[in-house]
Amino acid sequence: MSFVSIIMGSKSDYAVIKNCIDTLECFGVKYEVIISSAHRSPQRTKDYIATAEQKGAAVFIAAAGMAAHLAGAIAANTTKPVIGVPMKGGAMDGMDAMLSTVQMPSGMPVATVALGKAGAINAAYLSMQILSIGDKELSIKIQEDRIMKAKKVENDSKDIEVLL
Ligand code: RP5
Fold first, then answer.
1. 48 lies in a domain?
2. What CATH number is given to the structural domain containing 33?
3. Which residues of the chain have pLDDT under 70?
């Protein structure tokens, strides 16, 4: 059974990552979620990745703030795709998290999404798009979601649009 594994560095990341969880639930995608840190609990992080892979984790989502490098630490321990969600906050308001996530040296990629809520939601979408490569049903759900989004743009516009 393939699933998405979500690892956040601290409980303080949960409010943002809940958006990722909610998005996966909307699509009926299976996931695990744990708190584990690259620097506060490095062994737990490493052990969890090995266990999750054995159980069927197909994609890892890593959420961390400041320069915690959780996504990179996960990428070092798996060849599965890793999506990094930089958390806003701290003295640099997320710039440190963004750079420590996006600026991975060559050969050890982390697919980095936007800071905060948008990034958490996009991490869910990107992980589902990866899973959908081998899952036709999920692929159709994602295509239907795109159609709904396009319709919403049209409907929102109809409410306010002025055309000459
Ligand atoms: C990172 O440090 C966590 O991912 C969190 O975003 C940040 C601050 O953690 P706390 O001090 O709030 O636990 O490791």
1. yes
2. 3.40.50.1970
3. none
Go through the chain and tell me how many residues it has. 164
How many angstroms separate the alpha carbon of residue 69 from the centre of ligand 1? 11
Q: Is residue 161 part of a domain?
A: no
CA-based nearest residue to 59, from 164, 129, 9, 11: 129
The protein residue whose alpha carbon is closest to atom 14 in ligand 1 is 9
Q: Is the dihedral of CA 108, 78, 61, 36 positive or negative?
A: negative
Asked whether the beta carbons of 63 and 85 are under 8 A apart, the reply is yes
Domain limits for position 114: 3-135
Domain count of the chain? 1
Within a domain: 153:
no
- Nearest protein CA to atom 8 of ligand 1, as residue: 65
- Distance between Cα 28 and ligand 1 center (Å): 29
| Residue whose CA lies nearest to ligand 1 atom number 12 | 12
Question: Does ligand 1 come within 6 angstroms of the Cβ of 13?
Answer: yes
26 Cα–ligand 1 center, Å: 27
Residue 70 lies in a domain: yes
| Residues 20/121, Cβ–Cβ less than 8 Å | yes
pLDDT tens sequence across 2-46: 999 999 999 999 999 999 999 999 999 999 999 999 999 999 999
Q: Kindly give the number of the ligand 1 atom that is closest to the alpha carbon of 97.
A: 6
